[in-house]
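Figure 2 data, in text form.
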Amino acid sequence: MNPVRDPEALRIRRAAAGNPSRAAIPDSAELAKLFASAFVNDPVFDWIARSGARRAAGAERFFGWLLSVRAIPYGEVWMGGGAAAIWLPPGAPATAGGLLDQLALLPMFLDLCGVSRLLRGQAMADAMQRHHPHTEHFYLAFIAVAPEWQGNGLGAALLEATLRRVDAARMPAYLENSNPKNDNLYLSQGFAMQSDIAPRGAPALRAMWRSARTA
């Protein structure tokens, strides 16, 4: 947990995370940096991403594409207080599409994984696609907090705020948890463990499901 040097700044950030704003395309570059910095040492990301100085740039390019092309246009990317969440609503495709679409994205994934880890990235993507639920749901693809503010409740505030939208729609939610230290956060918000869906040799990737709230 990072120390809090300014309690008032933390209070303001928690309030902003608890009342987030919807991201727009011009926010993509800033948010890509946030997600890249938050996930650079994530266990699963570390397994698939190239090592060395080019990792950060590859991660920023990946998140920039994900945000601007795949997520923000669906209107469920939220940000506030140094935290952000990438949700995909029911009906939004969870994967990049067909073979031609995936081939077009090959240079980006080479930049992220490098040649040596490209097969790892493909194996992880295949496992995620294979286990993705077919029932209509909200999909939490990524949630991130700026590294200097991690461990101070911003992620919890943002998750709770965005789940209110899920509950208002009376829909279930799904995520893949790539870091065991986040287990308690998701469990506390009603997610239940399903299974480890990671390919052989990879760090654990836990599928988690939250049933629809009807009350």
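Caption note: The beta strands are 21-22, 77-80, 83-88, 138-145, 173-177, 192-196, 206-210.
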